[in-house]
Description:
There is one protein chain. 39% of the residues are buried. It contains ten helices and three strands; from the N terminus they run H-H-H-H-H-H-H-H-H-E-E-H-E. The protein has 266 residues and is mostly helical. Helix 5 packs antiparallel against helix 7 (139-163). Strands 1-2-3 form a three-stranded antiparallel β-sheet. It has helices at 2-20, 30-49, 54-57, 63-66, 68-90, 111-132, 139-163, 181-184, 195-198, 233-244, and strands spanning 211-215, 220-224, 263-264. The chain is globular, with a radius of gyration of 20 Å. The chain has one domain (24-166, 176-224): Ferritin (Up-down Bundle). The longest helix has 25 residues, at 139-163. One 2-acetamido-2-deoxy-beta-D-glucopyranose binds at residues 56, 59, 110. Keywords: Signal. Pfam families: Ferritin_2 (PF13668).
Amino acid sequence: MRIFSALSSLLLAGAAVAQSSDCAPKSSDVQTLQFAWALQHLSERFWSSQSLNQTFLSNATNATTANYPPNFQGITRENRLGVRAVQQIGNSISNFTTPRCNITIPQSANADSFLKNALQVEQTVAGGLIGLAAFTQSPEVSFLLARLAAQHSAQAAYLGTEQNATFFPANSTSLIPAYTPDQLIKATNQTGQLGTLLKGCVTPPAGPCGQQVNIGPLVATLNSTRTGGGTSSSASASASTTGATSLASPTTTATATSAARNRRFF
Ligand SMILES: *[C@@H]1O[C@H](CO)[C@@H](O)[C@H](O)[C@H]1NC(C)=O
Ligand SMILES: *[C@@H]1O[C@H](CO)[C@@H](O)[C@H](O)[C@H]1NC(C)=O
Ligand SMILES: *[C@@H]1O[C@H](CO)[C@@H](O)[C@H](O)[C@H]1NC(C)=O
Ligand SMILES: *[C@@H]1O[C@H](CO)[C@@H](O)[C@H](O)[C@H]1NC(C)=O
Ligand SMILES: *[C@@H]1O[C@H](CO)[C@@H](O)[C@H](O)[C@H]1NC(C)=O
Ligand SMILES: *[C@@H]1O[C@H](CO)[C@@H](O)[C@H](O)[C@H]1NC(C)=O
Ligand SMILES: *[C@@H]1O[C@H](CO)[C@@H](O)[C@H](O)[C@H]1NC(C)=O
Ligand SMILES: *[C@@H]1O[C@H](CO)[C@@H](O)[C@H](O)[C@H]1NC(C)=O
Ligand SMILES: *[C@@H]1O[C@H](CO)[C@@H](O)[C@H](O)[C@H]1NC(C)=O
């Protein structure tokens, strides 16, 4: 008992120090964290919505070598842990509320189409979390986003290498695709867009320092917003749509590049 109360007062003291620090997550991070929560929740829903039993999965191409069932249990679990992680950081900000997202995942007709959709979702969520990292200036939030993006990227690589003999093309001209929140909420069903599933349950956060994030093939840069004030969805979207197409066809990214060097993000 005594140990517990001593421990918890220590923890409380730690929390108080953290909250008084300039580096603690701020109320300006609320929308970024809500967007991250929605992406992570969507990935969790995707994996939990389909019954991934042996019979279903054994029908997939190369199922015998891929060892899908235990890996998919692990992915499902880790995506659930990711939701908890976002919630934990969110709860440290007084006006964070969990977004009300009613995400309905269509059932895949067969194992191969499930695998294809899973790759698309994991690549999109990974790229979306990378993009979100440009919207925070708090170390705890950027750490969370980096870790979650790496998690989804690992999951996408596992899925991709089982589906495609060449997942990392030798002639690649881009780092892993990343997407801005403005682009992610677009309502078509392709890699880099989740609007049909998110159905407007979260709002893209305002650009950092009142600027617009432009994602190129190698880095992201900030410049002034096109019309002044809010984020300009069309400009950031076109820059990253080209980068979006997937690891398999990185050529198109080259266009987004080198204009707008007002300020480098990192
Ligand atoms: C949280 O509060 C801050 C100011 O206290 C405000 O700028 C921000 O918009 C709020 N966020 C939400 C999602 O309510
Ligand atoms: C196995 O999974 C498939 C597809 O998700 C589902 O239709 C089927 O009902 C499941 N079977 C069992 C026994 O759970
Ligand atoms: C969630 O979405 C589904 C399908 O889009 C709909 O049938 C259901 O009523 C929705 N639930 C809530 C609570 O909005
Ligand atoms: C297995 O795949 C074949 C096509 O390759 C399909 O016709 C069949 O319905 C699938 N079975 C299950 C249980 O998904
Ligand atoms: C995208 O749409 C196609 C057909 O329109 C469908 O087969 C596929 O499952 C959808 N993908 C996702 C991730 O919803
Ligand atoms: C699936 O297995 C076949 C035969 O073993 C192999 O040729 C093919 O490259 C595999 N596909 C992938 C995507 O690894
Ligand atoms: C910001 O940079 C992007 C991408 O380089 C460019 O398309 C856009 O026109 C620039 N906006 C302004 C206001 O300079
Ligand atoms: C596999 O790689 C080829 C060539 O790079 C690409 O055209 C195709 O879209 C890739 N497929 C998947 C599922 O990634
Ligand atoms: C890269 O190689 C693939 C075939 O492996 C080809 O389809 C694609 O056009 C090439 N891209 C560039 C930029 O050369």
